[in-house]
Design brief:
It is a single chain. With about 475 residues, this protein is an alpha/beta fold. The chain has four domains: about 120 residues, no CATH class; about 180 residues, P-loop containing nucleotide triphosphate hydrolases (Rossmann fold); about 50 residues, no CATH class; about 70 residues, no CATH class. Helix content is about 55%, strand content about 10%. Strand 3, helix 12 and strand 4 form a beta-alpha-beta unit. The longest helix is centred in the first third of the chain and has 20 residues. The radius of gyration is 26 Å and the shape is flat.
């Protein structure tokens, strides 16, 4: 019994030494070490926040309360992070031994001494400094995977990451334009790759108009693109048969060639699926085909390799048999607008320190009232404020005009309406509060532009910004 006492004392001394040593490493320095260890994997904003708060000794419940997330979700983020770090540095990492484990790794990588190491880290931190306006990221297109301006919308990310790991799964992501659909899809694909799955992604907006002329042409385009992304030679002619038809030929191509040629699960993500809604006959054949592949996974093992991700802007307006539609099966994800708390967090990432605390929420509320929580519109505003190009008061006053920060965006929306008089007339009636129902195609187009919201039987402007601007532009013209 006495023999074990020195070991216990030694363990206590080692632990205390590790804690003292870790105190010399600031949270910023620890974050740099972590990011170096995990390369080429990049941390999400939420992972960074969970790590930093864990390093400072906060518990999961405290972190969840501070970041306005659920305890379980934050705990899962932490567990995944410690697992990834364990695999990266070759030693078990937990929340409890985080300081000691990262310090040991840092010493193994840089045995020349703390002063030199931290000097290097300080340079690394300075070189990645994001405190200057030049470091801000202008919002355009999907948010890059390594961007600190991506906002998690829990529990959505955790949901889709879990679902994509299930055999034969199908995920449907829906939201109007510029709400973050593609950004989420790209993160889902990146996660799938990290999990060892093969992936292929298609954006129907990039397909030539002629591709939609016939079902046969569209399906061959689909097969050719997927084959190339999987590193396989397109061999459609070997499986295409006019007697069996295009849908069966495409199915056999997937089943007997694509899925059998790969030894892992395969994620097929199709973005801008709503474009096919404009071709009702094509959609009436292609959409049930996706549903049939999903259902085949319950009967045929080979189809369990396929995981489908369908991304679209609006509800489908094409009448489909309930038993043939892919839009009433799988996991539905409807992206919500950002909350005030999320906008406040994003404002702080843009170094708008006046947005902090209760006073900050009061100052941000008028912006939320004007543009809602639309991610693109929010980021455009915060970018302008962060660049110190405009004050919040100026922004709010000028926003519904072409002279304001949204001038180009509003001009683009107006040009789309001017090209389609049916849409312009319908929006006028919505703005005049005359209308409680829209013809399905018109509603689909206006909703996909983000100009309207459907509330039960009523149709209303989606946000005050559009209501003010288009009342001046459309109603004043008669």
């Amino acid at each position: 019994m006495m023999a074990t006492q020195p070991m216990a004392v030694k363990s206590e001394v080692d632990e205390r030494s590790s804690q003292l040593a870790a105190q010399a490493m600031s949270v910023d320095e620890a974050l740099v070490v972590l990011e170096q260890a995990l390369q080429p994997q990049r941390l999400s904003d939420l992972q960074q926040m969970v790590f930093c708060r864990s390093w400072l000794g906060q518990g999961y419940e405290e972190i969840a309360a501070e970041l306005a997330y659920g305890d379980g979700y934050i705990r899962e983020i932490g567990s995944q992070l410690w697992l990834a770090l364990s695999q990266a540095i070759g030693q078990k990492v937990t929340k409890k031994n985080l300081h000691a484990a990262l310090r040991r790794y840092q010493q193994e990588q840089h045995p020349l001494g703390t002063q030199l190491q931290f000097g290097g880290y300080s340079q690394a931190i300075d070189s990645h400094s994001d405190s200057s306006p030049d470091a801000l990221e202008f919002p355009s297109g999907a948010v890059p995977l390594n961007s600190r301006f991506y906002v998690d919308r829990p529990p959505i990310e955790a949901q889709v990451f879990r679902e994509i790991g299930k055999p034969g799964s199908l995920i449907r992501i829906r939201a109007p334009r510029q709400m973050g659909k593609s950004s989420l899809m790209h993160r889902l694909i990146a996660h799938a790759k990290q999990e060892g799955l093969q992936t292929a992604s298609l954006n129907l907006q990039r397909a030539d108009r002629a591709i939609f002329d016939s079902l046969d042409q569209f399906l061959r385009w689909l097969c050719a693109n997927v084959s190339q992304q999987l590193g396989l030679t397109p061999t459609m002619d070997e499986y295409w048969n006019a007697d069996t038809g295009s849908k069966m030929s495409c199915t056999l191509y997937f089943q007997c060639y694509l899925l059998k040629s790969i030894d892992r699960a395969f994620v097929l993500a199709i973005d801008e699926v709503n474009r096919i809604f404009e071709y009702p006959e094509l959609a009436a054949d292609f959409l049930p085909l996706l549903r049939s592949w999903y259902e085949d996974a319950s009967e045929f093992e080979v189809w369990q390799k396929l995981r489908l991700v369908i991304v679209h802007s609006t509800e489908v307006y094409i009448p489909l048999n309930l038993n043939q539609s892919p839009f009433n099966v799988g996991l539905p994800i409807k992206l919500p607008e950002l909350t005030l708390a999320q906008i406040q967090d994003l404002a702080l990432r843009h170094h708008l320190h006046w947005a902090e605390g209760e006073a900050g929420t009061r100052q941000l509320q008028p912006l939320l009232d004007l543009i809602g929580g639309h991610p693109y519109l929010v980021r455009l505003a915060l970018y302008g404020l962060g660049q110190q190009e405009i004050t919040l008061e100026q922004l709010l006053a000028e926003a519904p005009t072409l002279a304001g920060i949204y001038g180009e965006h509003l001009r683009h929306q107006l040009s789309l309406l001017q090209k389609d008089s049916t849409l312009a007339i319908a929006l006028k009636r919505v703005l005049s509060d005359e209308l409680i129902h829209l013809e399905p195609v018109t509603a689909y187009k206006l909703e996909s532009l983000g100009l309207i919201k459907l509330q039960g039987d009523r149709v209303i402007p989606s946000r005050k910004l559009y209501q003010i601007y288009f009342q001046n532009e459309l109603l004043s013209t008669g």
